[in-house]
Amino acid sequence: MEVEQADDSLTITEMQLSAETANAGDSIDVAVTVLNNGLSDEENVKVRTYLGSAEASVVIPMFKEADEQTVYMTLQLPKDLSAGIETIKAQAYNAFASASASKDIVIEPVKIVSAATTPTQAAFSVQTIPAGKASVFSLQITNNGAEPKTYNFAIGGVQDWASNARVDPSSATLGAGETATVQVHLIPTAGGEHAFALFVKDGAATVATQIIKTNVSGAPIQATGSTAAYVVLAAVILLAIAAYYRGSNISGKKLYY
Question: Which class is domain 120-252?
Answer without folding.
Answer: mainly beta
